[in-house]
Amino acid sequence: xxxxxxxxxxxxxxxxxxxxxxxxxxxxxxxxxxxxxxxxxxxxxxxxxxxxxxxxxxxxxxxxxxxxxxxxxxxxxxxxxxxxxxxxxxxxxxxxxxxxxxxxxxxxxxxxxxxxxxxxxxxxxxxxxxxxxxxxxxxxxxxxxxxxxxxxxxxxxxxxxxxxxxxxxxxxxxxxxxxxxxxxxxxxxxxxxxxxxxxxxxxxxxxxxxxxxxxxxxxxxxxxxxxxxxxxxxxxxxxxxxxxxxxxxxxxxxxxxxxxxxxxxxxxxxxxxxxxxxxxxxxxxxxxxxxxxxxxxxxxxxxxxxxxxxxxxxxxxxxxxxxxxxxxxxxxxxxxxxxxxxxxxxxxxxxxxxxxxxxxxxxxxxxxxxxxxxxxxxxxxxxxxxxxxxxxxxxxxxxxxxxxxxxxxxxxxxxxxxxxxxxxxxxxxxxxxxxxxxxxxxxxxxxxxxxxxxxxxxxxxxxxxxxxxxxxxxxxxxxxxxxxxxxxxx
Length: 490
Fold this sequence. Notes:
Elements: E1 6-8, H1 20-34, E2 38-40, E3 46-47, E4 58-60, H2 80-92, E5 96-101, E6 105-106, E7 111-121, E8 124-140, E9 160-166, E10 171-177, E11 199-201, H3 206-223, E12 227-230, H4 238-252, E13 257-260, H5 267-276, E14 282-284, H6 286-296, H7 312-315, E15 320-323, H8 344-353, E16 358-362, H9 363-367, H10 380-389, E17 395-398, E18 404-409, E19 420-425, E20 430-435, E21 444-447, E22 456-457, E23 463-468, E24 473-478, H11 479-488
Parallel strand pairs: 1-2, 1-16, 2-5, 5-12, 12-13, 13-14, 14-15, 15-16
Antiparallel strand pairs: 3-4, 6-11, 7-8, 7-10, 9-10, 9-11, 17-18, 18-19, 19-24, 20-23, 21-22, 21-24
Helix pairs in contact: 1-2, 3-4, 8-10
């Protein structure tokens, strides 16, 4: 069986010209050939800023680029017809499609309402500031452009528990509506991190839960995605997605894959969430992302033996979706923590060539980010290709030095010429004797990351001394793989 490799197929600053779904169709064959077999597509529904919306300022989840709402018919990425064609194209060639689900908040309401609310301390959402007063809030969503097609449900303040803007007073704040409470089990940052942005959905309200569940069933029936990437799970009552996914899986008759974004570097929070949702989804390995950042910004002082400690990759590999960067961590975004360019090949060798977890490659790393003059990560396509064809077999770790660490994959019978050795360092150059297995005895191994490197020969006992330059990664493969790389990868 071929390794699973996901790609987040967008970055924040894509052109807002409505042509992105067509680009997906045009690039599908190329990325499939390289080794991508899972695609996470951006939110496909209408945001509050219309064609300028990346998709997280959710306005109408039923509008996939079909109705004249929020200033445009298409979304930033194109029309409903283009979207459905892109999904089908990916699936027809064997790439699974994962839709981005954002159910925490809505923005861009059509009308205001007057409600009583009390302001909360933004640093401690359990602490009230001042008295309960009347506020004018944007909470009535009627979707006049859609006019009841697909669903006649409209939203008002009873479906939400708070917002951040008082229109009458022209005041920002965190306003909890009278008679409402923040959901009990959410992340405990700021005492209670239920509220994130916009108008916050009240997941204790049965009408709200039914509305988003009905939409989920409609989306499955209409788009037929292979599963979901779920946004901001730490801001919603933890048990909600356990129940929501169960109902949608029962509806579709498929035990589809889902991965959630719980943004925290604390492994205990992630494992607790997985326990509460009964492992009904995987999570992005945020602690591993921050391990990469620590290693890359320590001026060579980070102990590389600890790189995988307290990560999902080590603690819950069956629930780990690993990544290096994403649309939120790229420059200019809210969770900016972009991994320095010199370290990215090291980080990608970890997530792509090991046997644990499902790696997720970032569009901005694969193609570059023109908005910030950031080029594509060197050798990334090569690493994706190596994962597809050669990163198989027993894994043996050599995390036994504070700077030079590595691992080997010993290959298997199912994948011809599979097996490779990976050596990396965040400091000075070095070498390490690692065991590839006796079946490779006498074979020459070449550094696929630097084709000018001199080969090494595997000894009779299966060992060889592999080398790595300072602040880099080397990936050693046999001569047949070396030839394949030279012929097929740019």
